[in-house]
Amino acid sequence: MESDALVTSAIRGMLATLDPHSSYFTPQEYARMRERQEGRYYGIGVSIVSLDNDITAVVVFEGSPAYKKGIRSGDIIAKVNGDSAKGWTTEKAMSVLRGPKGTPVHIEIRRRGYEEPIPVELTRDEVYIPTVPAYFMIDATTGYVRMQDFGENTDHDVKHALHELASKGMRRLLFDIRQNPGGPLDQAIKVANEFLPRNNLIVFTRGRIPNSDQDYKATEDGEFTNIPIVLLANRNSASASEIVTGALQDHDRAYVVGETTFGKALVQSIYRISGSAGLALTTAHYHTPSGRLIQRPWDATFDEYLSYSLKDQDVARPHNPSDLMHTDAGRPVYSGGGIEPDKRVAGPIEGFNPGRFGRTLYARQTFERFAQRYTAEGDTRIGGGAAATGRKTVKSNFVVDDAMMSEFKEQLKTDRIKIDEDAFTKEIDFIRAMIRFRIDEAVFGIAEARRHLIMVDPQAQTGLQMFGEAQKLTELSKGSKTKANH
Known about the structure:
Helix content is 33%, strand content 22%. It has 486 residues and is an alpha+beta fold.
């Protein structure tokens, strides 16, 4: 074992005795973590995935160097600076494609319909990663905002989206934070403040080091304190996402639909150490305004800790009487193991809850592979007419018909995936939705893909039916006094 690997293993072994979230970052991991927090990096502007040992472009960010050079979804990056990319992991490809601003990178791409590789000369530039990749009006009065991550500019991203929707007539909000892993504490506080009046407690932290005991309150009246909110959360909504969810639920400002959240209530302090590596050390834990500590238990193995959220998502977990807390309006809520939704709808994969066959198709990236083939071909069978970018021949109202489903089955056979016809029929709605979603994402972008997906997404559809309950909460919150129950 090389000395660097030995040191890394030793440090991680020591940290594992503390808690599940104290972590050591290698220099490369620390750089990636900082890029995620900052919401930007220097590179060519392509979201990539490894499919069949090929590095494949999934999404090309508008305005990026790759976009300007005409690289498209479905292109295979065959070589980078003369080196074959065959068999590279996604992580290796990312590390090679990224680099200092203004530096050149030469790639060769393979594109369906072209016999020879296409050489492309690119100059790395700043690429912005939005933490709010999708926002739009669902109908004349209902706005939708998808917050998929937290970075240093998330509050600005959310505020911009809300203002845009308000200008279009938004009177109620479907706020989607499913799959959001969390991020900086200050950003969670600022996002929650958008929906809360001045001096409402948002979160409080308690720890063992100086200055770790802090109460964080809304510093001003939020601009959107009077609109009904349905908040979508799931088992992978964690950390800062749970701070926002807990604050809005405890103050009766949002009706929560979906699954019990991850249950991470530990606050990490990040330290850069020698060699550009990093440490994340737990220095405090946080409580929601009602006093809830929603940290999941970690007295088992690490694998059991991670799988805790997979248990019994169809039903509420039993609680001890001491877990009972109350919202401002007196609604019961509970400590421990994540934040429970007001309306439970199991749906870990894009709002759906598929069985084993559907989960296998999703895990093996069959939908991405099928979508890449169609979008790379510019297949006219799904509509004809140019897409918004002018680079594809897919209409935005195309239908995943029986002919397309037959072709999808042929791909499964090619990929040597055994087809269980009964399971395929049972999972048909999920399969159609995922095919449509991946094609939409590749051709029209994530916002349009989300716009179409939520019309069939079971969690989102349930959420849209819950605005009557959200309106009741809005009225209750107006009559409730500001509380800090701790």
